[in-house]
Design goal:
Number of helices: 10
CATH topology of the largest domain: Rossmann fold
Bound molecules: xanthosine-5'-monophosphate
Largest sheet: 5 strands, parallel
Number of strands: 9
Number of domains: 2
Strand order of the largest sheet: 3-2-1-4-5
């Protein structure tokens, strides 16, 4: 019978046998999957696991600092790399969703390559790929139709010459969380909603700038913190906000305003392949909407996304 404990024991043993004294490099994203993969590998090979956590400037508010701190708390050997400006530079003027994804993926690979060259004799690339990623990258990455290019699956160029080790690639998300629990990873990390690799870059529709990121971070923070404060966070599979490339007219005191619209999205799902919008309480939505409009400069209208997947996707880009 499969239990998280038996999975941990057998996987750690296999990893030890497979990796021996080899060095492994792993890119942490702050998400559940890469975190669990890292801790599992760390159990097996200890200090031979070198983790890299890149700040792409597209993370949630305070995320880089707080996540880095929890990784250190887990005993991981992790280097935080601030590459915000490289990402913003590459994104400048790009508005097409696929162009943006590719730009973000490209810089990620560049940064990762630069950083991994500093780690001598690394032989393996560790990845937190889970089973649905394997399925989705096969099904959506057909030759004719790329729905969305997920830059973190098979996204590294051949010349990196690293062998890939993916200890979670047979597991579904709920199993990954159980394994994480068996590894004593804090709930704060395990309970996190999924978050796309390209981050807020694909939640800012149109071109991405540091200023827009700051606006969306505030909006997202109010929404996510609100879900937590109201005990709704764990009832939702994933939630976030989109900054729309649209201004609308509003009124503040006696003044006419002409400012940005944000869309809130909260979905229930098992694996992200299909999803339903969550019927969040009206009172909650009213409170969040007020808080956003009152506190976030440059936003005067909030809408709630009531589309399911399919035909809509979870992310807007
Ligand atoms: P969609 O928008 O395709 O999203 O319905 C399904 C799930 O995948 C996440 N997502 C990504 N995750 N890299 C990721 O790691 C990506 O490029 C990416 N694009 C979408 C999305 O947040 C949702 O959980």
């Amino acid at each position: 019978d499969w239990t998280p404990e038996s999975f941990v024991d057998s996987t750690v043993a296999e990893l030890k046998a497979q990796l021996g004294d080899d060095r492994v490099i792993l890119g942490l994203s702050g998400g559940v999957d890469s975190s669990v993969a890292a801790v599992l590998l760390h159990r097996a090979i200890g200090e031979n696991l070198y983790c890299i956590f890149v700040d792409n400037g597209l993370l949630r508010k305070n995320e880089f600092e707080s996540v880095l701190e929890s990784y250190h708390g887990l005993g991981l050997n992790v280097k935080g790399v601030n590459s915000k400006d490289l990402f913003y530079k590459e994104l400048e003027g790009k508005t097409d969703p696929e162009d943006k994804r590719k730009a973000i993926g490209k810089i990620f690979v560049d940064v990762f390559e630069t950083e991994s060259k500093l780690i001598e004799n690394a032989k393996w690339l560790g990845q937190g790929t889970i089973y649905p990623d394997v399925i989705e990258s096969v099904s959506v990455k057909g030759p004719s139709a790329t729905i969305k290019s997920h830059h973190n699956v098979g996204g590294l160029p051949d010349y990196m010459k690293l062998k890939v080790v993916e200890p979670l690639n047979t597991l579904f998300k709920d199993e990954v969380r159980l394994v994480g629990k068996a590894l004593n990873i804090p709930q704060e990390i395990l309970g996190r909603h999924p978050f796309p690799g390209p981050g807020l870059g694909i939640r800012i529709l149109g071109d991405v700038t540091a200023e827009k990121v700051e606006v969306l971070q505030e909006v997202d923070y109010i929404f996510i913190q609100g879900l937590k404060d109201h005990g709704l966070y764990d009832d939702v599979w994933q939630a976030g906000a989109m900054l729309l490339p649209v201004n609308s007219v509003g009124v503040m005191g006696d003044e006419r305003t002409y400012e940005k619209v944000v869309a809130l999205r909260a979905v229930s799902s098992l694996d992200g392949m299909t999803a339903d919008w969550v019927h969040l309480p009206y009172e909650f939505l009213a409170e969040i909407s007020n808080n956003i409009i009152n506190r976030v400069k440059g936003v005067n209208r909030v809408v709630y996304d009531i589309s399911s997947k399919p035909p809509a996707t979870i992310e807007w880009e």
